Amino acid sequence: AADLVTKTDCAVEELCFKSLKAFYPDHVFIGEESTSTVTRCSFDNRPTWIIDPVDGTMNFCHGFPFTAISIGLCINTLPVLGVIYNPILDHLYYATSGTGSYLVSPSTGILCPQRLPLSPSPVPSSLATALIATEYGASKDTDILHAKIRAIQRVITTPVAGRGIRSLGSAALSMCMVAEGGVDAYYEAGIHAWDICAGIVIVREAGG
Length: 208
Prior knowledge:
Elements: H1 7-23, E1 28-31, H2 32-35, E2 48-55, H3 57-62, E3 68-75, E4 78-86, E5 91-96, E6 101-105, E7 110-115, E8 131-134, H4 142-156, E9 160-161, E10 164-166, H5 171-180, E11 185-187, H6 193-205
Parallel strand pairs: 1-2, 8-10, 8-11
Antiparallel strand pairs: 2-3, 3-4, 4-5, 5-6, 6-7
Helix pairs in contact: 5-6
């Protein structure tokens, strides 16, 4: 089944494009909602903004508070800037290459940016001590579901036994949890550029 698309997805993407184009009219823009209607999109060395207007649309529709706006910038095809904002929890994650990753969360009363990870912990020596995030995706195809279930079984059973699996329903926020130190790793099959572009920078600048 196709992902849910709401009026909010389209409106947020249009707002992001319009706002950024006012400052960067010569840049390239790739968005989930506009790109999904075409067969191919151009991606080259030009500055390119890659945007997921509502990552976790199903969460948004059901009131599950893990949904985010994800905005990434690539230059020479490499991600150099990432901004991920959860408007429900009022958590803003951001990073640029070489400057570190940060979290601002006014809802908690902390207005100053906090550098990520929040609580540095030793890198797990093996999957046996790792908490891992993944997503199941929207596909109901039997073969795809069986493949994902088998992958999870391999992660949490011997000889490769993870401590546990978590699923937030948002690729962007799962990557933020890696940067924050809440989970040790994140993986997902069938991911798209707009799901991870911003998160790549945030995780990398947090030391991941």
